[in-house]
Here is the input.
Amino acid sequence: MAVSERVPEVIRRSRAAPVVRPATGLWAWLLQRVTAALIFIALGAHIWVIHYDVVGADITYKSVLHRFGSPWLVTMDVALLATGVYHALNGLRAIIFDFGLSAKAQRTITWVLVLVGVLALLFGINALTAFLRGNALLW
Amino acid sequence: MRMMRYKNTDLWPANYALGMWVWLLHRVTGVIIAVYGLAHLVVISFATIGTGGKDFDDVMKFFAKPYLVALEVVLLAVAFFHVLNGFRIVLFDLGIGVRVQKQMFAGLMVVGAVLYSLAVWALLPAFS
Here is the structure.
């Protein structure tokens, strides 16, 4: 049964109690949990491969390329980037919304954060391609 | 008068329950990790797309200073807290352990302290 069907007619039609769709969506909440689990796995692999493999030795472009130059690890890092950017920006969004903003301000902030996220994602993917091609797609 | 009423609520810091401090700390650690993550993305990306890896090596040499590595060890503690408490939050959302939330927090922090000690011990060669 859809939610609207369970709301009594008198409440649904009332001007005094409009049905407000919260800007902090249920999907955003669920995705925050899902990305948390994915980050846990991908960040574990990221830190292990890049930071714990040879502790103490100088980290150079060559040594990172040697360990990190596989398409699988770059793909995993792209996944980490996407989930991490979402988790971080959605978390900031929750904190900002807790200060009590109007619905309009909430929508504006959401779209600004979406833009920031897309730019960060494209910027990061561009840099990650350098580990596969020798140099990044752009620049 | 209003202030007095505020002081008698759970929202006045002196009256915070343990869960409230943990909630606040989860947000603070979240912001720290988000800011670090953004800086990490910008610095490493610009170094990587630089000329033939030379920029990358220079940046890595800069960050190999002991006090900057020490800051990373602090960041690791921040991340451990955020991950373990995040696990607790997900359990609450699934309806698990809400009644034993304080005990669960203590247990997870003990587990975290053990795992963190191991992680720092494995990182010791980075300081030499």
Observations:
- The radius of gyration of chain B is 20 Å.
